[in-house]
Amino acid sequence: MPEVQEPRARVLIADDEPEIRSVLSELLGAGYECAAVASAEEALELLRERAFDLVVSDIMMGGMSGLEMVPHVLRLRPETAVIMLSGMQTVESAVGAMRAGAFDYVMKPFDLLHVEAAVRRALEHKSLRDSKRRYENQLEEMVAQRTAELDRALHSLEDAYRSTLKALTSALEARDHETRGHSERVVSFSLRLGREMGLAPAHLRSLEFGSLLHDIGKIGVPDAILRKPAALDEEEWTRMREHPLHGQKILEGVEFLEGAAHVVAQHHEKWDGSGYPLGLRGEEIDITARIFAVADAFDAMTSDRVYRRGRPYEAAAAELDEYAGRQFDPDVVRAFHRVPPEDWEEMRALSLEALRERASAAQRRGNAATRDAAAPAPSLRAG
């Protein structure tokens, strides 16, 4: 198999003395692909057309000087190395060249061996920089790829959590037919308010899961209380008011539901401190719980119950205003009013549609199970 030849480095020589251009072209042409020009302006024109690995330039030339040219070279081709040549044998000229961005500096009259060594060092330095840049790019691509894979895995896991929590919520709502679909709606309402309030993604996630699970503590409330058709007595109300703390205990130790636990534990607290179970007031109540309280009350007021019809948007909005500063955070109520009324109606319709779809899917699964149970058992007799 023939050996693959590495492409030769490309060197651009800029000097207004023909003899210098000729000597350098002959010296460097044996190992590199060379081009020579007589001015800085010509050098820049050539650099606009194609890339060079190295520019070897005189400092003093007619027109633009070599020092003036260097910043233009580095703007056009940041990866290009520059070596300056000069007959001014002063420290100041060398320092000026380096400050301008040159890699090296060679005095005239120069020793050809010194020029060769400077060119070799400059190209080796460029090669190392190119390798470093390629490695960094590969590393960035690898990190981006791994990050995307991790994000997909986390989203998949979060979707699995969400599906599990929705199934759990549906099971809870099956105990109370009046509130069926309530969690679905209040999640939509809460997230819309949360976005209106400018919550960060992590807080929105906590608000979503907390809204979905807000009544999980009712698992600890006996059916005789939860489904009692008459008014609860004082002892029964005491048991009912314990459900936020039951819910908090259920979620304890579940890391991804840590933020959601604030909604579960505090969704019956009131802005003026008259709520339960802890009597928190004002900003002692977590912002997610304050947002949920408004969404929950709005849904309760506008939803049909066995004993009453749901109230219209205008009546519910007026009641939120009436209790702002007492039951509700005034800022959240103001955010509620910034959302157009038709948006609330659209969210309610979408939640109802999702609920019907889930019910339809459950019915299809039930029908399939019935058919499977009714199918004759396969014969064990050999054919």
Feature tags:
383 residues; Hypothetical protein af1432; 15 helices; disordered C terminus
For this structure, the CATH topology of the largest domain is Hypothetical protein af1432
Q: Tell me the count of domains.
A: 2
Strand content: 5-15%
CATH first level of the largest domain: which class? Answer: Mainly Alpha
Largest sheet: 5 strands, parallel
Explain how this protein is built:
- By secondary structure, the protein is an alpha/beta fold.
- It has helices spanning 18-29, 40-49, 66-76, 91-100, 112-173, 182-196, 201-212, 223-226, 234-240, 243-251, 260-266, 287-302, 313-323, 330-338, 341-374; strands spanning 10-14, 33-37, 54-58, 81-86, 104-107.
- A five-stranded parallel sheet has the order 2-1-3-4-5, sandwiched between helices.
